[in-house]
Amino acid sequence: MNKIRKGDEVVVLTGRDKGRRGRVTRVLDTGKLVVEGINLAKKHQKGNPNTGEAGGIIEKEMPIQGSNVALWNPAKNKGEGGPDRVGFKFLGEGQARRKVRYFKSNDEVVDA
After folding, report:
1. Considering its fold, how many domains does the chain have in total?
2. 20 to 14, 36, 37, 40, 87: CA distances (angstroms)
3. What is the pTM of this model?
């Protein structure tokens, strides 16, 4: 179970996009994440007339290391929100026991 999953809202902690927020679109096996609107790079793409793709310079979202982002907690800082660390804990007993993610600052469960 990963601490950050597809669809989570994250904030960038380091680098040129520091402080910016976005949603995770992909989680790679290497521990890197692709976040929409974050870590954009210009790519010179050749056109392909068979598929109808136009050539030119496009902006592409590149992967960012998972340790450089933190999950966004909307309840942190008196409702303003902020980056937060994530932990794991077990809820329930016996067969109904399940592992969930929670915010370390206020012990609120991320995925209910």
Report:
1. 1
2. 10, 11, 9, 12, 22
3. 0.81
Which residues span the domain enclosing 44?
A: 9-79
Q: How far apart are the C-alpha atoms of 39 and 32, rounded to whole Å?
A: 12
- CATH number for the domain spanning 22: value is 2.30.30.30
- Does residue 106 lie within any of the structural domains? no
Give the pLDDT band (50/70/90) at residue 95.
confident
What would the pLDDT profile of 3-39 be if each residue is shown by its tens digit?
Answer: 999 999 999 999 999 999 999 999 999 999 999 999 9
